[in-house]
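=== RUN LOG ===
request id: a7f3
mode: sequence -> structure
chains: 1
length: 426
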Amino acid sequence: MASSRLQNAFYWRRWGKETVVGAAALLIFLFALSATFDSWSEETDSDRPVVSDPDIVGLTLVRNAKDRGAVCLDGSLPGYHLQKGSGSGSNNWLLHIEGGGWCSSVASCSFRRTTALGSSDHMESQVVFSGILGHDPSQNPDFFNWNKVKIRYCDGGSLAGFVKSEVQNGTKLLFRGQLIWEAIMDELLSVGLANARQALLSGCSAGGLATLIHCDDFRGLLPQEATVKCLADAAFFVDEENVSGKRSMRSFYNDVVSLQGISRSLHKDCTSRKEPSQCFFPQQIVEKTKTPVFLVNPAYDFWQIQNILVPDNSDPYSKWRKCKLNIQNCDPDQIERLQGFRTSLLNAMSSFQQKKDAGMFINSCFIHCQTWMSNTWHAPNSPKINNKTIAEAVGDWYFDRKQVKEVDCPYPCNPTCYNMVFSKLN
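=== RESULT ===
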């Protein structure tokens, strides 16, 4: 993340026009330029432009968190941003877990603790809410006046790890993601979440994986009569072979799960049959999740393509370099491989798709995380499937207006897509 690759330029491309990404949308992709399995961030709110006051929300550190050991990698207090609801949304709650990858080694976690992804000492005191957290009804029609919470991510293990020891190989690191989740939930329950009539737990990327892991637990914390559902954005990471025939994501997840003690937070019937690292994949998690779940995912998720399908070490001669920078640069053989990746993603989702209460919005865009920005959540030019934005699809599903299982046609059929274009990756 400290890499000079953060200085590289990039932009979104829409079919028929090009649009430079404004500061409000930059950081998820800036850090993606330096994406590695060990350390990756998707946004920095301080880099966004200041807009209207209702969108600017202050940081709250969790009371008494240190007493229960619920601390960030460096021992600092975990935090969240809360915007109170109003009117018809006063008793409704939307929680969104920040993403930011994972760390799998003492070295990468040690670096992470010097950033906002490992320490509240480095978190912004204020952030801007937009997209699914926005307050403007024209941009967030179904959830604009709900109580909205952004949960900060500072453990490196999708809020799922727990190791009692504070010292790892002579280095002080605290893996307490599960305790952070519990402490934040307890505090939010005390300020009104316990009385929720409707609630939606959401998250992006690693935060979306945390959403899936904790979805049923979240349901269990709230009144039985409440409507409770979960939304995972760009979180369906697949256990796919890379172009050199290796399953690098499986190996990486094994290191994360082992280092951070994550297995105890995973489904026991899965870990009793499979390696715990395999139970960290969403395909295994959603199979056992009882609470209704909605998946938002691009079929050509650039992070998965750049880090799971074609990580740098699988492409020693850089044959995929131009394709990874811009999907329009892919040659026919590479497009065929990308279509195979899409097929693997859809196959991994096939059992989930059969669930009656499941929701899906799988578009054919070269992007990663689409719910947290107004441009891709709900705007006149937002990505659509069957003339429906992501916000409209999620709203229809959440409020049971209709079943929503939208799966886009293969690339390059969708002219509404925002597609990332990177100038360079190194």
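=== NOTES ===
Residues 1-10, 15-52 have pLDDT under 50 and may be disordered.
Residues 179 and 339 are 40 Å apart (CA to CA).
=== END ===
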